[in-house]
Amino acid sequence: MSVFFVAVSFAVAFSFSFFFLTQTIEYQVWYPHVDWPQQPALDIWFESDPPLVHKTMTDTETGLQKTNRHPFWPAIGLVPVKVIGFLGVPERLSVCLVLASGVGLASALFSLTLLFLQGCGIFSWLVQSLFLASATFIFWAGIVDRFPIGAATILATTASAAYFSREKRMSIWLAVALNVVSLSATITNGMFGLLLNVCFFKFKTAARITVYALVLTCVLWFAQGLFIKHHVALIEVEAYNQTWLLNPYAGSFLQKLVVLLGASVVIPVIHPYNYSDLDTVGIETSRLLGVQHSVPGADGPLEFILALGWAFLLIVSAILWLRRVDKTPFDTFLFLGIGGQLVLHLIYGTELFLYSFHLAPLLFLTVARGIGDLNGKALQGALFGLCLFIPLLAIHNFSEYEGAWIRYLESYEVMKGEVRRDSSSVIWASPPVGNGMSID
């Protein structure tokens, strides 16, 4: 039954992601002869970078490879695409397969964490369904971007923390491997390896594991340079990304919390994403999608009920979890992980929904830890409430997802038209794989 639970979690997530990627990848790819700031799909979807990610998954020479950002990403993203391509699979379909596998892996690792914490009873199935019905999953599973794969590295470490909290002992070399997997210059991923060290090992051992992981990552980074051209130093912070640090666009501390804790589960009404200081930013952003300034529950009765229900569920779960007497190393790991994610993302001045895959799974694990130990009528009431809440959540988020894609395509067509007027040498691609939409 445990294997079945994980397998179903992978299959559902993979199938959903693969279907929507094949339907929409036509509108997310990199087009030749177009400079990166003019790529039609750039930044529209909550400031994500589908064409840049597509380019780095298909080109070993491009200067867009951020080989220091996620040291494993170029190998994980590019090598499988090339290998699948050698088997005769079209390049875009290969990209869809690799990205959908990353989404499926993130879902499977989340279910594995639940399995180690709660077993595979009905409550675990419901929490897994909550993950699959969330705005985070529905809005990012079909997008050409790194976030689900990044979430998989976080959840690999989290699942290991859940397992070894139960087993009481962790191998040092397994910890080194998990540190290497999670290590990232963005810190938001790499912190989970460090937290694993702090929560499960004494200080000297934790320090040794960290050093081993850093050395091994450096070795792998240099080895990666044998087949992927490095255009950035191993330690380098781009000046462009510094623009978004503490940018006033993201709003107040409370507004940031609302987006990180609320919009990641119940998507609010979507508004145009537009910085107030365009001279500083240097790009046109009025055509982009955003939720950073949305008011939770303002788009109708269903959204209001869902936003209120999620807030109630999260608060009650957090209280019950924090009141637990039998705290484990995993509880410390989860608490520090959520706190670290919030602190690190609060310094960003952009659409914070962009980073929801880093945080939302941890919030669902808070629900699992808080509600999972209830008994009797309290547990029955919680299960009944989840059975009502989850289908409504899925309906709402998917409805908003479809509306968002309509707005996305409108903006995409405007940008595509501008590029066509500027250049007649652009090679526009053929229709997407499957029964998707035509570009013209």
Quick overview:
The protein is mostly helical and 440 residues long. The protein has 17 helices and 2 strands.
Written description of the protein model:
The chain is mainly α and 440 residues long. It has one domain. 63% of the residues lie in helices and 1% in strands. The protein contains 17 helices and two strands. It has helices at residues 2-24, 50-56, 73-86, 91-118, 122-133, 135-140, 147-167, 172-182, 190-200, 203-224, 239-242, 253-263, 278-281, 301-322, 329-345, 356-371, 376-422; strands at 271-273, 288-290. The chain has a two-stranded antiparallel sheet. Helix 4 (91-118) packs parallel to helix 7, helix 14 (301-322) crosses helix 16 (356-371) and helix 15 runs antiparallel to helix 16 (356-371). The chain starts with a helix and ends in an 18-residue tail after the last helix.
